Structures are given as structure tokens and as C-alpha cells.
Amino acid sequence: MALPTIKIPVFQQRYEWITKPLDLMEKSARQYPDLYSSQILGAKEPIIFVNDPQAIQEILTNDRKKFTAPGEENKTLEPLVGDYSLFLLSGSRHKRERQLLMPQFHGDRMEAYGELICSITEKVFSQLPQNQPFTARDVTSEISLSVMLQAVFGLYKGERYQQIKRQIIAMLDVFRFPLASSFLLFPFLQKDLGAWSPWGYYLRQRELD
Length: 209
Fold this sequence. Notes:
Number of strands: 2
Mean pLDDT: 80
Order of helices and strands: HHEEHHHHHHHHH
Structural class: mainly alpha
Number of domains: 4
Radius of gyration: 20 Å
Helix content: 40-55%
């Protein structure tokens, strides 16, 4: 039996994934409750969305060799994570790099990360003004960025901490709005037309030391 596919043009699929992804997934799931495929990421092979519990269990517990290697399917993330990110590697190279990282995600290290995340979260929330509205995105971004700088880069405060923090924020602000994500899904938009063009600005922010 052929795998069900979303019955709308590929360009429209990508546009809806950028502008209203939840609506697209809910609409598709109503039409195909168990699983369906889509070309939203522009990969060579379609992206398969699985909703059936038994199928999900099969995927998570079966031989990984039966499923597509992650590298090729994550190619759209290359401008964000670089050429050598674990997200983009496949085969023996992916396995080797993954084994090098795994000791950092076991035992005492994970407990320490948990304590760090709780501490940063409490600090960020303690600084929020009382009885005033706030934007959840800004708060969660501040928490995530602080965790990244401290847990990954080993930076806690000082000029270097603030410098890297500003540069990461400036780089990611290019994708602050949904339509800006179209740069990732539509490679033909990745044109450097100078520092004032969106893609040119992003490239320059990415190259800052």
C-alpha cells in the first residue's frame, strides 16, 4: 500500500509549514490519522509523520539501520549548525562523534546540568517585574541561551560572556519571525546581496568571532 501523501503542492506545504505548522499538521492528521508523508523540508526523500502508537514504538525500539540516516534529512539546518554538526553526519562518522559526546550525558553530569538549569530558571524568573505582562518567548530564550553559554561554552559572566551572548541573539534574530525561516526551506533565497540583505546580514553575524 502506498504511503499517504499530503494532497497540496510542495511549495504550499513549505509555506504553511513556515507560517502555520500546527494547523498544517492537524489538518493532515485529520485526513491521515496514522501516518502520512510530506515534502516540507525539501529533502530528497519525503518526511514521514507518524501518529500511530504501535508504529512509533516500532521506530523507537527497532534496528536503526532500517531507517534513514539523520544527516541527509537535516540538511536544511546546515546554515544554522555548520557542516560538521552531529545533526548532519551519517554512518560511521555519526556513530564516532556520538560516542565522543555520550559521556557528557550520563550520571553526575546530567544531574549537574539539571541543577544548573533549575538555578538559571529561578534566577531569570526572579528578575521578572511583578504584576506586569511578559513575553514567554523572551524568557525561555534567555534561559536557553544562559544554559548554552554556561554548560556548553563554560562561560558564566564577563565581557566574553556578554559578547558571545549578543552575537548569538543577533544571529538568531534573523529567524525571529516565521517568514524569515523561508531562508532555510527555500535555498534559492540564500543570496548574499550585501550586509543590509537578510541573508547577507545573517552570514556576517555568523562569521563574527
